[in-house]
Design a protein that fits this description.
Shape: globular
Strand content: over 45%
Structural class: mainly beta
Radius of gyration: 27 Å
Number of strands: 54
Distance between the termini: 55 Å
């Protein structure tokens, strides 16, 4: 019975609420410091956002895998007093034998324990929960079956095989709604897959003397390989092997060329391999990709290799600066600028770099193009002027870690998980959307996103965005529009919206002047304030929003506005533009067409109102946009007595 409680706790702790802890770790000091930097950058006109032409692939599930690893290693029995509302789960616990054939549905997790057997034979089963197989001789068999495990979002569901559990999938289809999912095999457990079709990319963790044998699959997935484990692949497709190189390991190795592998072995008996205890065998498989995860304290030299991924693990409590890492690059003779390890690449191609701060480390990243950024435990990440192009996954913070990203861009998704906090400020997110899971917080501040941040589970989302104006006039009432809100789910115990304030200042001035506004009501794509510019002089101004929660925390959004002389106020900026432009969104070349009788000036402005391109047009003009950072832009066209403005998106 004690083991049953422990298993239920694993499910419960993965989605637990810890709002009081959130109160204590809210990084107000870091956010305040970042806001000061933001103001300096806006005042100086330094608003560059890096971008990458790299295309995203399967989204990595490293975040959830690392969390699952820690969950099974902790003495969870000590958490028993925290167990509440376990009856909310429709949990099926199997301690003997359950044979299932035909159509079957279970609404909740399934736990096989104490030598129990769950056997699907010629079954069409739907399971709305995780599956856990725990303990010696506890077994899950599926043959000639279809197992549908639906997910609302990627990595919602997991299969855990722990403590000597056994799983056999034979001639079976595994369907996770086509979304990525997790498999963890640990503690002398065994998983066998023969002729298995996967509908959904799987991120696998194999640890603590576990073993996986696969013979025949369309998509084997990615594997984080640690400890003394055994992996065997035959007739498999799409395998990404993350070779973890632990502290004190010494590696001098070259991976095979090409993605078709007839015979590959990796273990400590090979020349140039010291400090690893796992064993990998691959026989007659295709689309095999090489990855590695060198840990703090490792000594790694890789030569003459094409690497799909390098995931840098940062452990301990040091502060590490990281720069100069660029996806899709060739390295002739490169030593990474990392003070905590030696990593040398000789004649190597690297498709994706990923950054994983752990423990209590603090990583400062700048000037890089990476595939994934993920923090866990109590680590901190501060990134500026970088791109997370999604080729290794997405951007995330879990546990009680913190991610602060500014003046950067991301692809795929930005997500807070666990009790983590993500601040995504003055950035662009092209593809995917910002979201918060579990009891986490996501804060989107003055960033270009295709969808507003969304709270799920027991989480909370902040959104502070000043959309308009870019230009306005002295001696007028300028409408400032945008969003100022904090939203949490109905079950969340986190902070809520309290108020917001609006201010303006002349560029580089010392003080801010408050703009009266309806400050006690959240605004969603609405008027934030009306700015009376009577008596002000023309020039560059900054408009600021302070967004407050009901716990006393705050965040700022700052936008540059060009205040023009009143003599120009007769220009009508509201009329429908008389020019056409295409395509929208644009990737390479933007075309503008008009029916003007003479040349007219036009400009392209970025989201904060700065002119990034100026030229003239009579009938047609073409603009090459690859150097433009991804985001929202405006075409401002001057025609005789009026100015017309239209919006487009640069991908």
């Amino acid at each position: 019975m004690k083991n049953i409680f422990i298993l239920i706790i694993i499910i419960f702790t993965l989605n637990s609420i810890n709002a009081q802890q959130q109160r204590t770790i809210f990084p107000q000091q870091q956010i305040d410091a970042f806001n000061k930097t933001a103001l300096q950058k806006i005042c100086s006109g330094d608003t560059a956002i890096m971008r990458s032409n790299g295309k995203s692939s399967q989204t990595s599930g490293i975040a959830q895998i690392l969390k699952l690893q820690r969950s099974i290693q902790k003495p969870l029995i000590n958490k028993l007093p925290q167990l509440k509302n376990t009856d909310a789960y429709d949990t099926l616990i199997i301690v003997d034998t359950l044979n299932i054939t035909g159509t079957y549905t279970h609404n909740g997790p399934i736990i096989v324990i104490n030598g129990g057997l769950l056997h699907f034979s010629n079954a069409n089963a739907t399971i709305l929960g995780d599956i856990i197989v725990w303990g010696p001789n506890s077994r899950l068999y599926a043959d000639s079956s279809y197992l549908y495990i639906p997910q609302q979002y990627f990595y919602q569901r997991s299969l855990l095989v722990i403590g000597g559990g056994i799983v056999h999938y034979h001639n079976t289809i595994l369907d996770h709604s086509g979304l990525s999912n997790n498999l963890l095999v640990a503690n002398n457990s065994y998983v066998e897959m023969l002729n298995v079709q996967n509908n959904g990319f799987t991120t696998n963790s194999v640890m603590n003397k576990a073993q996986i044998n696969i013979n025949g699959t369309n998509e084997a997935g990615e594997y984080v390989i640690t400890d003394s484990v055994q992996l065997n692949f035959k007739n498999a497709s799409t395998i990404l092997l993350w070779h973890q190189f632990p502290a004190a390991s010494v590696i001098n190795f070259a991976f095979p060329n090409g993605d078709t592998v007839v015979n590959y072995k990796f273990n400590k008996t090979l020349v140039g391999v010291q400090g690893v205890n796992y064993n990998i065998n691959i026989d007659t498989s295709i689309n095999v990709m090489w990855g590695m995860m060198p840990v703090t304290g490792s000594n790694v030299t890789i030569s003459n290799s094409k690497l799909r991924s390098i995931g840098l693990w940062f452990t301990g409590s040091d502060t590490i600066a990281v720069n100069g890492l660029v996806n899709n690059s060739h390295y002739g003779n490169f030593t990474a600028s990392l003070s905590d390890r030696n990593l040398q690449l000789i004649n190597c191609d690297v498709q994706t770099w990923s950054i994983y701060p752990m423990g209590k480390t603090h990583v400062n990243l700048s000037g890089c193009i990476v595939g994934e950024v993920g923090t866990e435990q109590s680590s901190n990440f501060m990134g500026t002027n970088f791109t997370c192009d999604g080729s290794g996954g997405y951007m995330w913070a879990t546990d009680t870690s913190i991610v602060i990203a500014g003046y950067s861009s991301a692809v795929n998704a930005v997500r807070s998980q666990g009790n983590g906090i993500v601040l995504f400020a003055y950035c662009s997110l092209m593809g995917g959307y910002p979201s918060a899971l579990n009891s986490s917080i996501i804060m989107v501040i003055q960033s270009i996103v295709q969808q507003e941040p969304q709270p799920l589970d027991n989480s909370c989302a902040w959104y502070a965005m000043i959309d308009q104006p870019f230009n306005t006039f002295v001696d007028t009432n300028a409408v400032i529009s945008g969003s100022a809100w904090i939203v949490k789910t109905s079950s969340s115990l986190l902070m809520d919206f309290h108020s917001y304030r609006m201010y303006y200042q002349k560029n580089n001035a010392a003080n801010w002047t408050e703009i009266p506004c309806d400050s006690l009501h959240a605004k969603h794509n609405d008027t934030l304030a009306v700015w009376n510019t009577n008596g002000l002089v023309a020039g560059q101004y900054n408009v600021k929003m302070d967004l407050y929660d009901n716990w006393g925390n705050s965040a700022e959004a700052i936008k540059a506005v060009n205040l023009m002389p009143k003599i120009l106020a007769g220009i009508d900026e509201q009329k429908t533009a008389v020019f056409n432009y295409y395509p929208n969104p644009v990737k390479e070349e933007l075309t503008i067409e008009t029916n003007f009788n003479k040349e007219q000036k036009f400009e392209i402005l970025n989201l904060i109102g700065q002119t990034v391109y100026t030229s003239f047009i009579k009938n047609k003009a073409s603009i090459n946009t690859p150097t433009f950072p991804g985001g929202i832009y405006f075409i401002k066209l001057y025609s005789d007595d009026k100015t017309q403005i239209k919006k487009f998106i640069k991908q």
